[in-house]
Structure formats: structure tokens, C-alpha cells
Write a structure and sequence with these properties.
Length: 159
Amino acid sequence: MKYTRLTKEQFEELNQEFINFLATQSITADEWAEIKKNKPEVAEEELDIFSDLVWEGVLQKAKYLEHFSKQQLFLFEIGEVKMTLVGIKVDNETVDIRTRDGYRWLQDNLLNEAVQIYTSTKIISEDRNKDIFALIKQGANITKGELFRYFEKLVDTDE
């Protein structure tokens, strides 16, 4: 397995897609029930293969990631060749930017000396999706990039 298995809830959400996946392998509902009962290792393998296919599709479409921690915000734009990071660090122990009040404080204090905004770029490895998945495993979420574009305007990312 290249990524991680989907959760039970994710499988439930993707029930029709999973049925279609089984159908492409000529596995009927009755056959699937029999496989689960009599060949659980084969069923596990099918779940893993389907999970990897779903992850591949999701990761291929991912263009932006965000990762919030108490005092740091990492915003990523993922291209085909490079990944650009806009990072925001708050040097104020009383602020937790994961909260509404903390994020509001950040918005109101972007020019405060306690706020550092920086950028970085990194060449993506040959396995772009694996790079993205590693960030997701560390807590990043796929987004539409609104925050990245907002903060990108505040800094010159072409340095």
C-alpha cells in the first residue's frame, strides 16, 4: 500500500465508487460478500488498492495545502516542478492562531514585530503525490488556496 487505507466513513461516502471499482474487476455484490467472508486477505487487498486509487486521484488534483499549529501557519502552493511555501510565525505565547480570536489577532497584527512572514521553494521529487501525502500525514489539509494567495501578495515569492 502506497498511502493509507480510507476510513470506514470515507468508504461509506465512496460506496458507489467502490461498487464501480469492484465491477471493473467483474466482482459482483454476491462475490464480494463471499470474498469478505472466506478470503479476508483478498478483501483487505482490494480495500487497499481502492484506497490508493482514491488517494492518487485526490493528490493529483491538489494544488494548495495549509497546516496550522498554535503559532505557525504553513501555506503551500504545489506546482508540477516546485512547491512554494509561505510561512507565518507568531512570536507571542498568548496567541493561538488555530482559534478565531488568535487568527483575528494575526490579521490585525500582520505588521507587528511578533509576526514573521517568510517564503521558501523546494523542487518536488519524482513522486509529487508522495511529497503531498507526507505533508498531509503531518497535519496539512488540501485547500483552494485563498490564504496562500492572500499572504503571497504580502511577500515576494519569486526571490
